[in-house]
Each structure stands twice: as structure tokens, then as C-alpha cells.
Design brief:
The chain is an alpha+beta fold. It has helices at residues 4-15, 29-43, 63-68, 74-90, 95-104, 108-126, 165-182, 205-222, 246-254, 291-308, 342-349, 383-390, and strands at residues 25-27, 131-133, 136-137, 140-141, 144-148, 151-159, 191-197, 229-234, 237-243, 261-266, 280-285, 317-325, 356-364, 371-378, 400-402.
């Protein structure tokens, strides 16, 4: 489990095996190999080894790591395919853009932000919208200049995350430590674990979690049982583990809102005695952020982006705003559809110039195949431009089927 990329390929190979009688998804192994090689060529295999000194689990890890640890989720697999395709597309851009991108992947946040720019570049190119990338206006570098309906637009890209991301970093720490800890268990049978915390802001929260996790791993490895009903509860929270079964899994999923973290070690559908059986790991997290903080963060971000280019000679502007939902802790601004408050957004934009458009791209890579929705807002927005933006299509040329 130490190398996420290598483990991902093995998991995908297993999930696509013709020997599995009940498969949830159908994968093309040639595409799996292609994605694997693209990542190795660009990052190097060591980049995905989370047990080496080069990777510090207390720092912000690459979002790609979170996709790799979810090899049973079709949308996460699709997101990796898309990422690989964008890396290939990057090689068609200017050498300066390639160099800038290469220097940033050691900084996961900036790396991911620039990746959204590449996503928009490719989106415009694929839809045959004439554009100029990284145009200069004086000494200022612009993201894009494009032409829609015979109008030139200055386009700026911004990925925004949910408020309180710094607070959520400690939760990310829990998940990464948990993933590494599960790899130390010395017995193979299905488990479902639930974790609750009393106080994330406790200055000793990490230390207490490490102690609780170490205690579970030690006691688990010292026993010879093949069944479990483990409960460690005190004033700091609760750590519980029970046997995996379909009934237990459904019950936990139905009550997911009661927990902060749920982890599963899922046994193979058919267990063969006497041979090495294949188990998979699934991790999920749950938390809440007040809606007013989400809206305030969104509107503040749009205002900042507008002020950044207030003095531009380019009158017409499009601000592309990205919300990308994957199973991780660098969270999107819209985790749920209800958080996308269209009326408040439109009311806010009514104070803008009629020449300014905000285009939201919401991408969801969770349990099913990817969902991409595009919505454009503006004061008396040109309907042709609005329709053109909202009808943008993506094509990343991968094949995944749900059984």
C-alpha cells in the first residue's frame, strides 16, 4: 500500500479481471497502463510513495493521491484519466507554460490551481473557441483572451475551496495516518470502522488520534480472531470497528452523518481458501460548514478577481470559477447542489458591469461517473454568449462502464 500509483494499477487490474463474477465497473487495461505510464513519466514513481521521507503526511498532499486511494469509485478513475489527458495536452502548449507548470507540482495547492487553467485551455480548444493563452497586457500576464460571438473577452480562471480549509487540514492528517495504519494490519478479513471526534480544535488532537490508532493496530495484530467488535470510547471521541458485511455496510452508509470518518476493508466477493485473497480499502469523511460562510467566501473571491483587472483595456471579461468535488479535504466551494445559491449570486452580480460574466464550472468526481455542469451569470448577459458557455463539451476519450 506504500506506493499509491502502483497499488491503484493493481486494484484496477483486479477490478477488471474476467475471473470476477460480479464486477461493479468495466475498465480497459490498456488505458490503465497508459495513465500509469503518463504519471510515472511526468512525476516519477517516487512521487506516489507516501512512506518515503520526501512525502510528509502533515503537509498538503497532491489531490491526485486522494483519487488514487479510491480505485473502486468510477468517477475517481475517470478523474485520473482526465488528469493524464491534460498532462498530454500540456505538451502541446508553449515551453514557458510547461516550465511554469513543472515548477509548481511540488506545491500541491498552486499545482492544482494551475491545473484548472489547463482544463479551461483545453475546454476552449476542444470547442473550437478562438483563444490566446497567457497574453500580456503591459507587464501583467493574463490567463486567456478568447473570442465568442465576435466579442473579445479577457478570461481569468480561479479555483476556490470551502472556508476553514486550514481547520480541515487536521482532518486530512487523520485520514492519511489512517490509510497508512490500515496497511500494518496483519490479518485479512473485512472490517468497517467509524470514528467520531469530540473537538477538532484540541491542540493535542493529532497526538490523541495517533495513540488511539496505534492502540487499535497493536491489539488487532496481537489477537488470533477472525471476527471483531471493537469499541474505544472516551471524552475525546470514539473509534469503533466491526466485521464487514453487506448489511453492516448499508447501515453505516445510511447513518453516515453521525460519523466524521468511515473506513472499510472490503473482502473479495469470492474467497478462495489457501491462496492470497484481494481486499480493498474505502475511506470517507464527513463534516459541515455553515452556508453563510460558503456564500461569503464565494462573493469575496469574485470581487477580488474583478478588482484585479479593473484597469484592463479589455472591457469584456469572463471569470471562470471552478468547484471540483473529489473524496479529499481541500474542499470545493459547493460540496452539495443546495450550496449553489443562484439567486444570491445573480443579485450580487447585478452590481457588476454588463460586460462582466461569471462562469461556474462544477465538477463532481464521487461515486458514479463524472458530472460536469456549467452555469453563466451576468447583468443583462448576452444570451448567445451564455448559451455558448453553458453548452461547452468535454471529451477525454476514456471508457468506463457501470455493470
Amino acid at each position: 500500500m506504500s506506493n499509491l500509483l502502483d497499488n491503484w494499477r493493481k486494484e484496477c487490474y483486479y477490478n477488471s479481471s474476467s475471473l470476477i463474477l460480479k464486477k461493479e465497473i468495466e475498465l480497459d487495461r490498456n488505458q490503465i497502463d497508459s495513465v500509469f505510464q503518463i504519471f510515472v513519466d511526468y512525476f516519477g514513481l517516487k512521487y506516489f510513495d507516501i512512506t518515503t521521507p520526501e512525502i510528509d503526511v502533515e503537509s498538503e498532499s497532491s489531490w491526485i493521491h486522494y483519487l488514487l486511494v479510491n480505485p473502486k469509485r468510477p468517477a475517481c478513475i475517470a478523474a485520473l484519466f482526465e488528469t493524464a489527458n491534460i498532462l498530454v495536452y500540456l505538451q502541446t502548449l508553449s515551453k514557458s507554460t510547461q516550465r511554469k507548470f513543472k515548477t509548481l507540482f511540488a506545491d500541491p495547492r498552486q499545482f492544482r490551481d494551475l491545473f484548472f487553467e489547463l482544463y479551461v485551455f483545453r475546454l476552449l480548444d476542444y470547442n473550437k473557441i478562438s483563444n490566446q493563452k497567457k497574453a500580456m497586457e503591459g507587464e501583467k500576464e493574463l490567463d486567456i483572451l478568447c473570442n465568442i460571438d465576435d466579442t473579445e473577452f479577457l478570461c481569468e480562471c480561479r479555483k476556490i475551496y470551502a472556508p476553514d480549509v486550514n481547520l480541515l487540514e487536521i482532518q486530512k492528517y487523520f485520514m492519511e495516518k489512517l490509510y497508512l495504519g490500515l496497511g500494518k494490519l496483519n490479518k485479512g478479513f473485512g472490517l468497517i470502522g467509524t470514528i467520531k471526534f469530540s473537538n477538532f480544535n484540541d491542540k493535542d488532537a493529532k497526538k490523541k488520534f495517533d495513540q488511539r490508532l496505534t492502540k487499535f493496530i497493536t491489539e488487532f495484530n496481537e489477537q488470533t480472531f477472525d471476527t471483531i467488535d471493537y469499541h474505544d470510547k472516551d471524552e475525546n471521541g470514539e473509534f469503533s470497528v466491526i466485521n464487514y458485511s453487506l448489511a453492516n455496510s448499508v447501515e453505516i452508509d445510511n447513518n453516515f452523518s453521525q460519523f466524521h470518518i468511515v473506513f472499510k476493508i472490503i473482502p473479495p466477493f469470492n474467497i478462495t481458501p489457501g491462496i492470497l485473497n484481494h481486499y480493498s480499502v474505502d475511506l470517507k469523511c464527513n463534516f459541515s460548514i455553515p452556508q453563510y460562510k460558503v456564500t461569503r467566501k464565494l462573493l469575496s473571491t469574485i470581487k477580488d478577481k474583478r478588482e484585479q483587472h479593473a484597469g484592463s483595456k479589455h472591457i469584456h471579461k469572463i471569470y471562470f470559477i471552478d468547484s471540483e468535488t473529489i473524496p479529499e479535504f481541500s474542499l470545493p466551494i459547493f460540496r452539495m447542489g443546495s450550496m449553489f445559491e443562484e439567486e444570491k449570486i445573480q443579485e450580487f452580480l447585478n452590481e457588476f458591469s454588463e460586460n462582466e460574466i461569471v462562469c461556474f464550472i462544477r465538477r463532481e468526481y464521487m461515486d458514479t461517473l463524472p458530472k460536469v455542469s456549467i452555469k453563466a451569470f451576468g447583468k443583462n448577459i448576452n444570451e448567445k454568449v451564455k448559451q455558448r458557455l453553458e453548452s461547452l463539451k468535454t471529451n477525454f476519450d476514456y471508457h468506463i462502464e457501470m455493470s
